[in-house]
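A common beginner's mistake is to predict each chain separately and then try to dock the pieces by hand. The better habit, illustrated here, is to supply every component at once so that their relative placement is modeled jointly.
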Amino acid sequence: MSNREASVLSPEGCVRNPSAAAVAGKYWAIFRTQLVNSLAYPIDLLGRSLLIVLFMWIFMNLWQVTYGATGARSIAGLTLADTMWYLMMAEAVMLSKRDLSETITEQVKDGSVAYLLNKPFNFILYHFAAGLGDSVLAFGGNLIIGAAVVWLMVGPPPGLTGWIFAGAAVGLSWLLDFCFSALIGLSAFVVEETNAFRWIYQKFLLLLGGVLIPLDFFPAWLQTVSLNLPFAWIIYGPARLFVDPSLARLGQVFLQQGIWLTVVGGIVWVMYRRAAARLVINGG
Amino acid sequence: MGAGHPLCRRPDKLLSIVANQRPFRETTALTVLISNFLALCPVRVDNGLTTGSRLGHGALQFGSISSQCANFYRNGCLAMNAISVRNLRKTFQTKRKAAGLSGSLRALWRPAFQDIEAVRGISFEMEEGELLGFIGPNGAGKSTTIKILTGILHPSSGEAAVLGYVPWRQRQALAFQIGSVFGQRPQLWYHLPAVDTFYLFGKIYELDDGSLKRRISFLAEAFEIEELLETPVRKLSLGQRMRCEVAASLLHKPRVLLLDEPSIGLDVVAKQRLRMTIQRMNELEGVGVLLTSHDAGDIETLCRRVIIVNHGEIVYRDKVSTLKRRYLTVKTVDVRYNEQLAPDFSLPGVEMLKVGRYGAKMRFDTRKTPVEPVISGLAAAGSLADVTVSEPSLEDVISAIYARTEA
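With all components supplied together, the output reads:
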C-alpha cells in the first residue's frame, strides 16, 4: 500500500470538521452547485430570460393607452416610467422564483424524498439553498434583459439606492415565497396531489401580490386588504421599493417580510416535523 | 438500546475486560470510552471520523484507542453488530376504493382503509465489516426495512440499532456513519461532472478540505475513475456512472454501506468490475455492506451470508455456500443435435421435459445425479450441435424456499 493510501485510509485521513461554519458551508455548497448546474445550459437560461421582453412589450402598450386615456402624468404617484420600472422588477422576481412546491410534491409522489432524507442536512434548507442557486442566475438574466428593454422604452432606471434596497428585499421575498412553496410541497405528505393549492397561490400572487398591477392603483379597501396579506411583500414590496427607495418604505417592507416569515416559516417548521414523522414513502 | 448487548447489563464485567486491555489504561480515555459504551450500547466505536477535531487532544487519544477497540472487536474477542434488528414491523395504511364513479363517490363519503403489513417481525444481525445479502422479490419488504434502517421510516413496532444509533431517532447523526447507493435513484448531479458532486458531498458530510482532496484522489484510483471525474455525468455509461455513485457514497468513509440494486441494468463486464471494487473497499476499509439485488451473481460473488425475505418475513438465512449447495443444484439442459434423436431418448436420473426430433430439454438434480454421466450420455446420443445449461433463477430459488416454509 502506498504512503498516500495509508494516510487516506487511516482514521485521521478523513477528518470531519463539525463546526457551525461547516454546517453553514454545506448549504453554501448546495447553493453554489445549483448555480453551476444552472450554467450547464446557458442558452436555455437566456431563453427563459427572453420571456420578460414579451411581457414588458405588452405592459408598455397597455399602460401607454391607460395613461393616455386618463391624460394624467402620474396615477397614484407613479408616472408611466415608474410603472414600467415597477413592473420590470415585479416580473423579474416572479419569473426567477423557483416553484419548489412542484419539486417537493414530485419527490413525495415518486418516493425520491427518501434519498434526500438520508443525508446529513435539513431537507427544507437543502431545497431553499438549491432553489436560491437557480433563482439568482435567472434573476440576473431577467434584470439585465428587462432593464435594457424598459430603458429603451421609457428612459433610465431609478438610482443606485433603488437597486440596492430592492436587491436586499428580493432576498427575503424569495425566502417568503419559498416558505409558501414548502408549505404547499409538504402538504403532499398528507394529500399527495398539490396542484390546486399551487394554482390558488399563484393567482393570489398575480392579483393581490402586485404582479399585474401596482397595488397603489387598487381601490383603497382592496389596497388595505392586499397590504395586510403576505403576497404583497413577495412582489409588490421589493418592486415598489425599487422605484421609491425611501428608508421608511425599506423599514416597512423588512418589517412585513419579517413578520410573515416568522409566521409562515414557523408553520413550515411544525409541518415538516410532523410530515417527517408520519412519512409514508411510495415505491416500496 | 441498553439491552442490545449482553455486556450492557454487566458494566462491572465490561470494566474488567476493558481495563485489562493494555491500550486502555489511560484514565481519561478509559472514562470516555466506558461512558460512550454505556451510552450507546451496542458499542459505538468511533474511527476518528467524528471525534478528531471535536474533542481535542483527549479525543485524539480516544480516537486511536477506539480504533484499537474496533480491531479488538473485529478480532473476535466480542462479536460486534453493525446492524441489529429485533422483531421489526411496519404497517402502512392505504386507501381502498371500489371501481368506477360510484366507488369514487363512496370513497369520498366514507373512505375505507386497508392495513398493509410491509414488514412482519423481522430480526437479524449484521456484523461490522460483513457483506450481507438481503434479497427478495418486489414488495417483499426489503426496501422498507432499509428505509427504516436509514431512519427515513418509523417502524410500527420492534427495535433496531445501526452502529449503536436508533435510526429513526438519530437519523442525522447516523447519516454521517452510513453510505447508501440506490441503483435506480442516482445521487450524482446529472448535468455536472462527478467531481462537483464529490466536493458537494464533502461539504455535506462536513469533511475538511485537505482530507476531502486526498479521499477523492484515493477513491478515484481505487474505482479507476480518474479519467471520468471531470466528464458530465450524463455523458458517462451506466457502468461508469455506477462506479462513481459507489465512490461518492464512500467519501465520508462510512462504516456501513447500503447498496440497493447497484448492478441493475449493467452489462456483465461492468457488473464484474463493480463487484470487484466493492469487495476491495470492504477488504481495505472494513466497510460493512448490506446488499439487495435481484442478481444472484452479486450475492454469490460478494456475500458470505444471505437473508431472503418474502411477504415481509425472513424465509431463509444462512451462508451463501449453503444456499447454493441446497438450492442451485437443479440444472436445466437444452441440447440440439446435428442428427435425429431416438424417439425414446432418455438418461438415467434425468427428467426429460421435452424430446423433439433434433433436440431435447431435460432437468436433473446434481445432488442425486452426478454431472459427468449426464454429459457423457448427451455426447453418446449423437453429434452435438449446441448445449445450454441453466440454473434456476433467484426468483425460482426464492419461490422454492417460500413454498418450503409454507408447507
